[in-house]
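Provenance

Sequences were taken from public entries as deposited. Structures were produced by running a predictor on each sequence independently, with no templates supplied. The record for DUF1836 domain-containing protein from Anaerobacillus alkaliphilus is shown for reference.
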Amino acid sequence: MDDKIKQLGLDKIIPLDDMPNIDLYMDQVIQLFENTYGETKRSEDEKILTKTMINNYAKGKVFFPIQNKKYSKEHLILLSLIYQLKGALSINDIKLTLEGLNSQSKDMSIEDFYTSYLQLFEASIERFYEDFAQKTADVKQVANHKDSDYLEKALLITTLVSTSNFYRRAAEKLIDELGES
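Predicted structure for DUF1836 domain-containing protein:
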């Protein structure tokens, strides 16, 4: 199972150094995301980022307006954050979460925020591997008397999803607090 977890490409993210300092057209943005996250797709049909997605984020004001049909480094950072958040949060929750970064009166630059995020992201990956190994061991212990690969996988799946839901619900609570302030 460890090899399968390593194959998930959890460490795939666009580092700040890989984001060009020149503005990109939409097709170039999509290509950057495909090149970075392409191997993390569950199936070949899955899309990492599409023109429709980007246009919907723009219409929903999830990021600040583009200039001359080009996306700046700050847009790329916000799109990277949106990509990471969209698996667990609604677009409205993402918009509220990123609202402070999109505003003109920021306490922290978008690049500084992303640098901090990347540090926490890397630490989270390491903790995930440790936690996954512990959950796998816990499942084996609980299912020890039953000789069933299916049972172990089903127990691990339900445990992982439950844990994911705990974190999502905690994030939603924090988002609700952001909305109140």
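Residues 2-180 form one domain.
The chain is about 65% helix and 0% strand.
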